Amino acid sequence: MTSERYNARESEPRWQRQWDEKAIFASKNDDPRPKYYVLEMFPYPSGRIHIGHVRNYTLGDVLARFMRAKGFNVLHPMGWDAFGLPAENAAIERKVAPKAWTYDNIAAMKKQLRSIGLSLDWSREFATCDPSYYKHQQKLFLDFMKAGLVEREKRKVNWDPVDMTVLANEQVIEGRGWRSGAVIEQREMNQWVFKITKYSQELLDALDTLDRWPDKVRLMQRNWIGRSEGLLIRFALDGATTPAGESELKIFTTRPDTLFGAKFMAISADHPLAQAAAAKNPKLAEFIAEIKRIGTAQEVIDTAEKQGFDTGIRALHPFDPNWKLPVYVANFVLMEYGTGAIFGCPAHDQRDLDFVNKYALGNTPVVCPEGQDPKSFVITDVAYDGDGRMINSRFLDGMTIDQAKEEVAKRLENESRGNAPVGERQVNFRLRDWGISRQRYWGCPIPVIHCPTCDVVPVSDKDLPVTLPDDATFDRPGNALDHHPTWKHVTCPKCGGQAQRETDTMDTFVDSSWYFARFTDPWNETAPTTPAVANRMMPVDQYIGGVEHAILHLLYSRFFSRAMKATGHIAMDEPFAGMFTQGMVVHETYQKADGTYVSPAEVTIETGDNGRRVVLAATGEDITVGPIEKMSKSKKNTVDPDDIIESYGADVARWFMLSDSPPDRDVIWSDERVQGASRFVQRLWRLINESSEIAKQAPSSRPGSFGADALALRKAAHGALDKVSSGVERLHFNVCLAHIREFANALAEVLSRPAKPAPDLAWAIQEAATILVHLFAPMMPHLAEECWQVLGHTGLISEASWPQIERDLLVEDSVTLVVQVNGKKRGEVTVASNAQNPEIETAVLGLDAVKLALDGRTVRKVIVVPKRIVNVVG
Ligand code: ANZ
Ligand code: ZN
C-alpha cells in the first residue's frame, strides 16, 4: 500500500503528454459512430486565461470526456476569436504589431489551456485572424451579397471621435464610448449591412424549437427581435398649420384602442416633417440640434428626460376632423422604429404621461379596470396599462381592449383618403439589419473594390483572401488601412481603371458567427465548409458560454446558419441544438483602511473563535472584507489559474469549479474550499491504493453469487453510476460530485472493516474502485489515469468505455425476467422479487415492446416462470 501523496505537479504534465502523443482527442470525420459536438465559446486572445475560462472549459470537458466514454465520436475543438480592438490598442501603446501581439498571446494561452488537461482536438485549431480562415469569410460575404443578404446603406451611426470608429449601440454607455469615454456623435455613413431582418419572423418562430436552450435566453432573443402587431394610421394634417408639400403624418401604434385618449402627436428629430418645420423655425432647429447632440441611441433615450417642442403643426383625429392634436418633435421617438412618429395617449403609456405632465397637456383615461367606477377613475402620475373596458371613447365604450382594437382597425381600413386606406394592419420588428462595417485595421477586410466608373465591384473568388498589410502604422488616429500608402490602391477588376479597396473591416461578431461550422472541416482550402461533413457533424449538440452572449452572438450565429444554408454551405437552420449559460466566478473583495483594494494573494485569513480575521500578510494591518463580486482587475479580487494549478494541480481546480454550485449559477471562489478539494484528491488516491491491494486477492472471474456485504457495495456502486450518468447528461455536475463523494464514503467504510474481505467482497471492492475511477475521470482526468494504472488496468482511462449499469442492482431486492411474446424474446422486466403474478402481468403488458409485438391482438394467456421468464400468448 502506498503512503505517498499524490503528486499532481509531476503527474499532470505526464498524462497530458501521453494524450497528446496518442492524439486520442482528435476526432475523425469518417468515424462511423454517432457524433457528439461539444463546444465552448472560443476565447479572445487577451494574453492570459482567466478563471472564468477555466470554469467554461471544464464544464465542456466533463461532457466531452463522458460522451467519448459513452461511445460517441466527440468533436471538441478550440480556436481563437482573434480580431478586435485590443490588438490595435496594444500597437498604439506598446508599438507591437497587432498580428505579433495576437499570436504571442495565443501561444501563451494555449500553453495555459493545455495545463488544464482539456480533451481538445487541437488538430482543428485556427484563429479568426488567420488568412486561411478569413479567406472563407470573405467568400461567404460575397456569396451573401449575390443572394441579396448584403447591402450598402446610408446609416446613422454612433461615431466615437477619439477611437475614430463606429460603435454599436451596446458600446455606447450613457452617451459615451465604452473604451474612450468620449461623447458619441451621430453621423450618416455608408455602411455594409447583413439583411438579418429578412429572417425576423423565422428567427422568432424557431425559438420554439430550441427546447434545450435556457428559457431566459430564448426570452431575451424574443424581446430583441421584438415583434409587435399594430396599426399604421395616416393622420391628416391641418393645412393652415403645415409646411408646404406636407399633408399627412403616418404613425405606428400597438394600441389603436386608445385613440380617443390621444393628447398629442410626436415625431422624431430626424423625421422629414421635423426637418421641414425646422426650416422656417430657428428655435425648433436649435432644439433638434440639441437633442441630436445628446444622441438617439436606445440607452440614451431610455434614460434621458422626456423633451419636446411644439412645431405648431396640427393633426386631425381620424374619427373627428374637428379634433386637433399638436405635433411635437420629441427626443423619445426613434426614426428607425415604425414610422418615426406616434400619437401619445398619456393615460395608458408612462412615457406619454411624463410628457404631458411636463407640458400640461392633460390626460383622458379610456380604459377602465374591471370593478372601478369610470366616473372616479383618474390618472395622475402612473399610467394604467392593464386590462379593462373602454370608456370616454364614443362608439368603443363598453368594449374590451381587443374588441376596440379590432373595431378601430376595421373602420380605418375601410376608410380611405386619396387612394389609400387610412388604417393598415402591420407587423413591426424591433430587430434592425446588422451593420458590419468597422473603420478598423485589425479585422477581416471586406472584399470589394470601389471604382469611380463601375461603382462597387466584388473581388473575384480567385483573388481571395484580401489580406491585411503587415506594415500598417498606428502613429495617428483613425483606420490604419485607410492610411496605408499603397494597400488600398488597386486597378478595377472590371474596367482596369484606378480604383480603391474598401477599407472597412467586418465587425468581429462576423468572425464568431460561423467558426463552429468551420471546425467541422478546417482543412478545406477551397471552401468555407465541406457540406457533407458539416451536415453530419452539425449542429453543435451542446454549446456552453456566458450569458453576456445570449443575444447578439447567438442571434447572429442563427442568422449565419440560415444565410449559409441559402448559399449552399450547410443544410441546417439552427447551429446550436443545446445551449448552456454558465454562471460567473466571484470572490470576496478586500480593502485597506484607505479604501484601496488588495488581492486575495496579499492577505492572510485567520479563522478563530471570534470568526474570521483578515490581515494584510506583509504588514499585519486589518483588512475589511467587502462584498462578493465578479472577479475583476479593478477590484483586485482575481485569482490566477496558473497559481492555482501550480499549487494544487488542475484536477483540484476543476473539481472545485464543479462542486460548489450548479454550473448555471455563480460560484464563490474560496481558498478554504479549494483546500477541501485538494484533501479529497488525496483521499481518493489512498482509497484506490487500498482497494488495489484487496483487488489483488479478488477472484479473477465474477463470483456466481454475492453475500450481503458484497451486494450492498455493488448496489452503492451501480447506484452511483446510474445517478452520475444521468446527471452528467443534464449538466447537473454539482449533484454528480455529491454522489461521487457519497459513494467514496461507502467504499471507505467497507475498507475500514478489520476483517479480511471474503472473495466475493474482494471482487466487489475491485469493481467498486474501478467504477469510482470512471465516475471522477471526466472531472479529474489526470488523477483518474494514475488510479487506473494502480488498479492494474491497461491503456488509458480517457479511452476506456463507460461501465455498463447493472439495472437489477438499482431496484431493491428485485429480479429481472425475460419477456417473451409467443415464445420470442421481446425484452426484460425488473420487478420486486416478492412480486405476485398479477403485478408482473401488469408490468409486462405495459411494455412498449410487448404492445408492439402484439400488434393489437388480444392477450390470451400470460405464463410466469418464477424468477425467469414471462411468456405472453396472443
Ligand atoms: C399609441 C399608444 C398608446 C401606444 C398607448 C402605446 C400605449 P412596441 O410594442 O415596442 O412595438 N412607438 C411607435 N413608434 C415609435 C418610435 N419610433 N419611437 C418611440 N415610440 C414609438 O411599441 C409600439 C408603441 O410604441 C406604439 O404604440 C407607439 O405608442 C410607440 F397607451 O401608440 B403607441
Ligand atoms: Zn471599374
Q: What does this protein structure show overall?
A:
This protein is of the alpha+beta class and 874 residues long. It contains 26 helices and 37 strands. The strands form eleven sheets. Strands 8, 9, 10, 11, 12, 13 and 18 form a seven-stranded mixed beta sheet that branches. It has a four-stranded parallel beta sheet with strand order 2-1-26-27, covered by helices on one side. Strands 4-3-7-19 form a four-stranded antiparallel beta sheet. A hairpin with a 2-residue loop joins strand 11 (308-317) and strand 12 (320-330). The longest helix has 25 residues, at 671-695. The two termini are 60 Å apart. The model has no long low-confidence stretch (mean pLDDT 93). Ligand ANZ is lined by residues 226, 228, 252-255, 258, 332-334, 337-338, 340, 342-343, 345, 348-349, 428.
State mean pLDDT (0 to 100 scale): 93
Give the distinct bound molecules: ligand ANZ, zinc ion
For the sheet with most strands, the description reads:
7 strands, mixed
**Which shape, going by the Cα principal axes?**
globular
Question: Which runs of at least 5 residues are low in confidence (pLDDT < 50)?
Answer: none
How many beta-strand runs?
37
Radius of gyration: 34 Å
Task: Provide the β-strand percentage band.
Answer: 15-25%
The span between the termini is 60 Å
What proportion of the residues is helical, as a percent range? 25-40%
Classification by helices and strands: alpha+beta
The helix tally amounts to 26
